[in-house]
């Protein structure tokens, strides 16, 4: 699942670059990569953030190193990052409700990242989670601060 996540993130960044250069197909690539990445975080965030492989999701022994708090936090982070990625997508594509999704995703990601930082400081699994939250949170904050006219100029 980590390879799939890396491929989808690279495709999303590539499609954003293509969108800025006004190349054809950038909207479709952005739509597909962001949607699939959002689905990956939403459905499999609990396993991805606890370093559980795709083939081990249904095995009980894979969860022996995690506790309930870690799994609940990973589920929350998966939902928050999924909402944030969809907010980024909606903002770039100028869909209605993009700003609301962006704000909800930013606030939820920030709160859960702070909880992760304070309560799971020694856990190596959540270091990569904080990096993900920082990357997507930075992109989301930049998009939140940009005026809407930038996206109108970008699309038209």
Question: Summed up, what is this model?
Answer:
The protein is mainly α. Helix content is 76%, strand content 0%.
Essential attributes:
mainly alpha, 0% strand
Your description of this structure?
With 156 residues, this protein is an all-alpha fold. Helix content is 76%, strand content 0%. It contains six helices and no strands. The longest helix has 26 residues. It is globular and about 55 Å long. The N and C termini lie far apart (36 Å). The mean pLDDT is 87.
Assembly type: single chain
Low-confidence stretches: none
Query: What is the alpha-carbon Rg in Å?
Result: 16 Å
Helix proportion: over 70%
N-to-C order of helices and strands: HHHHHH
Which structural class matches the secondary elements?
mainly alpha
Main sheet summary = none
Question: Layout of SSEs?
Answer:
Layout lengths: L1 H19 L5 H23 L19 H26 L4 H22 L5 H21 L2 H8 L1
Helix pairs in contact: 1-2, 2-3, 3-4, 3-5, 4-5
């Amino acid at each position: 699942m980590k390879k799939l996540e890396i491929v989808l993130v690279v495709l999303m960044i590539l499609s954003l670059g293509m969108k800025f250069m006004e190349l054809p197909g950038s909207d479709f690539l952005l739509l597909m990569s962001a949607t699939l990445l959002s689905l990956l975080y939403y459905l499999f965030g609990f396993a991805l953030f606890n370093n559980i492989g795709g083939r081990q999701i249904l095995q009980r022994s894979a969860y022996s190193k995690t506790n309930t708090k870690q799994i609940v936090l990973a589920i929350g982070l998966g939902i928050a990052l999924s909402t944030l990625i969809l907010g980024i997508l909606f903002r770039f594509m100028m869909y209605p409700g993009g700003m609301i999704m962006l704000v909800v995703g930013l606030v939820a990601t920030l709160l859960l990242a702070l909880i992760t930082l304070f309560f799971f400081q020694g856990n190596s699994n959540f270091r990569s989670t904080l990096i993900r939250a920082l990357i997507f949170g930075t992109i989301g904050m930049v998009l939140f601060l940009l005026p809407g006219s930038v996206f109108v100029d970008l699309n038209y």
